Amino acid sequence: xxxxxxxxxxxxxxxxxxxxLKAVGEEIKDDHIAALLLVSVPKSYDTLKTxxxxxxxxxxxxxLIKNKLTDENNRRKEQDSDRNLAQAFRxxxxxxxxxxxxxxxxxxxxxxxxxxxxxxxxxRPLSHYTV
Length: 131
Known about the structure:
about 55% helix
C-alpha cells in the first residue's frame, strides 16, 4: 500500500487474495492473516504495528487489525484536513495583512478603518466620544 492509499481498498484487496488462496485449498490461520495485514501497511504505521504486536496473540484477530488500521487511517485523514484548514486560515490572514495600508487601522469601537498618518494610534477620533 502506498502512503496516501485508501486503507479500506487495501484491506479488501488483501482479504480477497487470502480468500483466493483458501479457495485453492491453502489453509491460512487467523494469526497469519493478522500478520499479513500488519506487514502490508507502510512504514509510517510502525508505531501502531508495535502496539498491536505487544498484545497477547489470542486477542490479535484479523477483525481487530482491520478496525485499528481503519481507525488510524481515518485519524490521519482528519489530522491532514485540520492541518490544511489551519494553513488556509494562516494564508488568508497573511494575505490581508500584506495588502493592508500600514497607516490605516481598523477600529473595533466604531468598526471603521481610520487613516492616522502620523497621529498617535491610542487617540480615538472625536466621533468615538459621547457627550
